Amino acid sequence: xxxxxxxxxxxxxxxxxxxxxxxxxxxxxxxxxxxxxxxxxxxxxxxxxxxxxxxxxxxxxxxxxxxxxxxxxxxxxxxxxxxxxxxxxxxxxxxxxxxxxxxxxxxxxxxxxxxxxxxxxxxxxxxxxxxxxxxxxxxxxxxxxxxxxxxxxxxxxxxxxxxxxxxxxxxxxxxxxxxxxxxxxxx
Length: 187
Prior knowledge:
Layout: H1 3-15, H2 24-29, H3 38-74, H4 79-89, H5 96-112, H6 116-145, H7 149-162, H8 166-186
Helix pairs in contact: 3-4, 3-6, 3-8, 4-5, 5-6, 6-7, 7-8
């Protein structure tokens, strides 16, 4: 199913008037206050994206520290290099963490010439991905970008199904912008 067809189905779903007791025509008639200046939109969106980028940077540093400690405990050669590479690749959603695994696995394989040490690196990778995806990223997004933990876990999954590939990539910055506008509306 193409992206155009999925977007069409989503808009048809949203446009159903009266679903769940919500009448979109009534919402549209409500007074939302004076219209916002375009510069205000740019300011709010820019501030939200800056906070999201800051959260990504903090997450990258945390993942690098996890890799460094784990590889140091496993005595994998060039642990500092692999941790730095993991921090750099953490910026690329979903593909970066997998690419950061290749170097340490090959280094462990070439150093010990067995299957056991690369397997330990794979287990370390699995632990880092789980800790990062379920604890670190949601916590950092809540602290820096004011996005609730439940939203930073569920929305990428939902958008990943609704818009494959792009949903996972667009969810975190989109959440940061949405919650920045929400915070503006409540102040």
